[in-house]
Design goal:
Elements (H helix, E strand, L loop, with lengths): L2 H8 L2 H7 L3 E7 L5 E7 L1 E2 L4 E6 L4 H7 L2 E7 L7 E14 L3 H6 L7 H14 L2 E15 L7 H15 L1
Antiparallel strand pairs: 1-2, 1-5, 3-4, 4-7, 5-6, 6-7
């Protein structure tokens, strides 16, 4: 997929709504060779999906050995809106708490007092974190109104061909 095609998909209004959500599902191949799909908080910085995790998270070894990942960001309503992204995870070990981690967890409903407590707890727990940064190399938006899964598009085309015959 060409970069301009990816940009066009990610700049669509529905994609932008999805990229403003709190959680994505990160799919990767685990150390034992089996697939994993884990929910994880994220933020979109305009060109990359950034997730943060503890330095001892098991997924880090897997991602360092096989950095190819897939992300799903979706809604829980009908019709669902789904943004699928594929890319390569880059791991960035940082001292302290990354600004993105504080940003991505800032949308949870907390009173100002709860926020201060939460941030103090986070700062006391982590001496550093790992930023998992994914630059999209492929993207697809499925909204079931203007875009459909490719298999459904294929079935519609086959039905139209049958009806013309």
């Amino acid at each position: 997929m060409r970069p301009n095609e990816i940009t066009e998909i990610l700049n669509r209004p529905i994609s932008q709504e999805l990229l403003a959500r709190d959680l994505t599902r990160l799919a990767y191949v685990a150390k034992d060779g089996t697939p994993r799909n884990v929910p994880i908080a994220f933020t979109w910085n305009g060109s990359e999906v950034v997730m943060c995790t503890s330095k001892n998270a098991p997924k880090l070894q897997s991602l360092s050995e096989n950095p190819m990942v897939a992300l799903t960001i979706d809604t829980e309503v009908h019709p669902p809106k789904i943004l699928l992204i594929r890319g390569r995870a880059e791991l960035d070990v940082v001292d302290g708490i990354p600004a993105e981690y504080l940003q991505m967890n800032g949308s949870y409903q907390m009173t100002p007092e709860q926020r201060v407590e939460w941030e103090a707890e986070v700062r006391s727990l982590y001496d550093g974190m790992v930023r998992i940064v994914v630059t999209p190399t492929w993207a697809k938006l499925i909204d079931f109104e203007t875009t459909l899964p490719s298999a459904v598009e294929e079935l519609i085309q086959q039905r139209e061909e049958r009806q013309r015959a």
